[in-house]
Amino acid sequence: MPFVTADNQQGSYDVIVVGSGAGGGQAAYTLCMDGAKVLMLEAGRNYAATESSMFRTPDLAPLAGVATPDKPFGFYDATVDGGWTVPGEPYVRASEDDAGRFEWWRARMLGGRTNHWGRISLRNGPYDFKPRTRDGLGFDWPIGYSDLEPYYDKVELLVGVYGTNEGLENTPSSSPGCLLPPPKPIVSDYLVRERGKRLGIPVIPGHRAVLTRALDYKRIPARLHPGNARAQKILAEDMRARTPCLWATPCGYGCAVRANYQSTTVHLPPALATGNLDITTDAMVHEVTLGGDGRANGVNFIDRTTGKQRHAAARVVVLAASACETVRILLNSRSARFPDGLANSSGKVGRYLMDTVGSSVGGQIPLLESLPPLNEDAADGHQLYVPWWLYREQLAGKLGFARGYHIEFGGGKRMPGYGTAAGLAWLTGGSYGVAFKKDVRRYYGSFVWFDGRGEMIPNDRSYCELDGSVKDKWGIPVLKFHWQWSDHERGQAAHMQRTFGDLIEAMGGKTDEPVKTDGADAIAAGGSIIHEVGGAITGSDAGSSVTNAFGQTWDVRNLFVADGAVFASNADKNPTLTIMALAWRASDHILERMRRKEL
Amino acid sequence: MDRRTTLKWVMSIAAAGPLVRAGRARARTPPPAGGGYGTDPDLSVSSRPGEPWPLTLTAAQRKLAALLSDLILPADDVSPGASAVGVVDFIDEWVSAPYSDFQRDRGVVLGGFLWLDEESRRRFDLDFSALDPASQRAICDDICDERRAGKAMRDGARFFALYRDLTAGGFYSSPVGRKDLGYAGNVPLKSFDGAPAAVLAKLGLA
Fold first, then answer.
1. Is A419 part of the contact surface with chain B (CB cutoff 8 Å)?
2. Residue of A63, A417, A528 lying closest to B97 (CB–CB)
């Protein structure tokens, strides 16, 4: 009975997992494969990747599929009932100006944001867990790279990640056999790599959760679940059901053949096959309930199908609702014992919210004009990327900002759409008529773009709290966001602009807009990169952090956080792979403590 | 659509500016009513203009829309003209869409249609659609590049820039447009071979 309504849940579970994305999906997988009885509660509707709009073309969509307030990443984006705004579920911003704005992306669907994410899967390196030790800023994590390394290996083996081991500084290598071969580069990739080399910028294969070949279903299950024949059998069967990449159609549409990672394509099917997982969708959790013994005994949720208040009970509660939603649940779980929110004796719940530093530059490259027809769908981009490379210059004090960024870039003859011939006047001098048609053919596929993704250092002015008056449509108090960047992030954004301008120039091209020299102008709004983490940070003492090294809250020992909220720093590496590795590790810890009857 | 494209699109809309207000005040067609397609539309249904929300351009506006689209993308030896591949329906759907950004574009487009006829009557004493092709081009030549357009032509140039984007948007997102550009993707492959050696050699990258 895997999908259950609020009425036919079992009386009690070993573990309630709130949220079904990268953290919740991984927690449910790990717990169920080892025999724990789990109830997963998802605020949004049920969703299967077979709903994906793979291969659909823009002419079949309203408005050629461009973004609208209903579908902010375009009509075919996999996101359901989500975006920067969710009807009936407002949030509040302390500031509306560019510097102080925070944008909150949510997806109300099974699998959450994993259904549409970029699939970029980078490991944090050893420096990234001990940033304060290196430069005196922010916080160290209570764990180091070696603690998480085996879990990175496991996650890569389970979900399937392509990439290579290059042995570059703070850019870890995976254990042998973990990575799938990288996809072959497209024409513009070669050009970026060659010209990047001239500038001393290393361009190497990207890491993405896309199957460039079938997973080794004979070997991997035994490696992931030693001594657990049943788990091995379930996983082997599931891995056989996943098809390698078809080299077409954007990953963000969702993948009906399960060639890339979504919680709904990788974590949930085998977890359901164990028979240990019940999932209730349309279950909006807003409160963790406490027993008289001070331990969590379940959660209160709104059944969105009826609007009724419900309760579910378990020995252990795992919050993985996404960083800010997890914070909201904690702050809304108030009691005489925890008047300021559950697990908040430190006052740190909601504090140290971080996003990724983002800045972009695009340009046009004459060398890439008028190339013959080419199929450049490839792996949907990110065949190659640039890891942060200026460690030495930074140590020597030459950069003027702390921490680094990596570069994502793209180009090629992508599926023509609304933007293909839009805004070309800067190149064509405003042509129209037959001359315009010729211009469009000439310039199609000759554009490249560079996106910087950099590390934000946690600060006291970037946080969320409950708003004093605004409530959502169910009467649940909503979050109010406060946001400020520091000179480190602004300096990074300006450096990105300069670097991307240099790269485009080295390719013989020109930028479509002048490179921005003011970092405040160059930096994308807080939250807009959708890498928000922090709010229940992990630390080594109860006074200055919310969770310990296993995501266990200091205040309530059977309450765990398994999403991005626990991040004590936000390295330039995209957070999803690390969320999964942490969730796996936390779940192993929960299993072990349950076996010892400590939970 | 990736983030960058989204952002670019949003910015191009935001750049539309003052003409919008003029257009809103002057446009005679009432603004569209009703909601959008919602946050959970059926992605498997092929949507034709007029289905998600009613089209709202008048017959006269559609006639001018067709004329102008074909001036921007006429038939040539590779592909047909814009109006023959449904670009007018696409633009009608766009300016009829019940979202604020699109309603802003509606103001620019309808205002631009009025501007075009006013300018045409000022110069030639005729509506734009009644002009001979050379006179039509004379006006377009003055508004086809926002950077070159003088102050008097600025509103017309803003309109033309948007209208060219809309025409090209409808045209190149169609099967005809994909074929025109030689798009070779969106087909399932057993393996992806990467950039062909001959192309890399031509670029000196082999």
1. yes
2. A63
Say if pTM beats, i.e. exceeds, 0.90: yes
- Are B169 and A418 inside 8 Å of each other by CB? yes
Closest residue of B to A184, CA-based? B194
A75 touches chain B (CB under 8 A): yes
Residue in A66, A185, A423 closest to B1 by CB:
A66
Task: Match 């919008």 to its residue by tokens.
Answer: B20
pLDDT of residue A372: 96
List of residues 6+ apart from A238 with CB closer than 8 A:
A269, A270, A273
Report the C-alpha gap between A409 and A405 in whole angstroms. Answer: 13
Name which of B8, B99, B175 is nearest A419 (Cβ-Cβ).
Answer: B8
What mean pLDDT comes out for the span A89-107?
94
DSSP string, chain B: --HHHHHHHHHHHHTTTHHHHHHHHH--SPPP-S--S-SS--TTSPPPTTSSS-----HHHHHHHHHHHHHHS---SSS--GGGGTHHHHHHHHHH-SSHHHHHHHHHHHHHHHHHHHHHHHHHSS-GGGS-HHHHHHHHHHHS-TTT--GGGHHHHHHHHHHHHHHHHHHHTSHHHHHHTT---SS--S----S-HHHHHHTT--
CB contact under 8 A, A416 and B6: no
B121 CA: distance to closest CA in chain A (Å): 22
pLDDT over threshold 90, residue B23: no
Distance CA B128, CA B131 (A): 5
CA nearest neighbour of B167 among B81, B96, B103: B81
Q: Provide, as residue numbers in chain A, all residues whose Cβ is less than 8 Å from the Cβ of B150.
A: none
Question: Which ipTM was obtained for this model?
Answer: 0.95
Q: What six digits make up the tokens of A167? A: 């042995």
- The residues that bridge with A41 in the sheet, in sequence order, are A18, A280
Nearest CA in chain B to A82: B39
Closest to A278 (Cα-Cα) out of A558, A23, A32, A27 = A32
User: Which residue is it, tokens 């670097």?
Assistant: A499
**Tokens, residue A264:** 């709904």
| Contact (Cβ atoms closer than 8 angstroms) between residue A582 and residue A566 | yes
**Residues of A in Cβ contact (< 8 Å) with B184:** 373-375, 413
Q: A420 and chain B: CB distance < 8 Å anywhere? A: yes
The strand pair at A559-561 and A447-454 is best described as unpaired
**Class of residue A506 by CB neighbours under 10 A (exposed 0-12, middle 13-18, buried 19+):** middle
Rounded Cα gap, residues A517 and B49, in angstroms: 43
Give residue-wise pLDDT tens across range B104-142. Answer: 999 999 999 999 999 999 999 999 999 999 999 999 999
Joined tokens for residue B150: 């003088």
Q: Is B58 on the interface with A (CB under 8 A)?
A: no
- B34 at the A interface (CB within 8 A)? no
Does B43 lie at the interface with A, CB-CB under 8 angstroms? yes
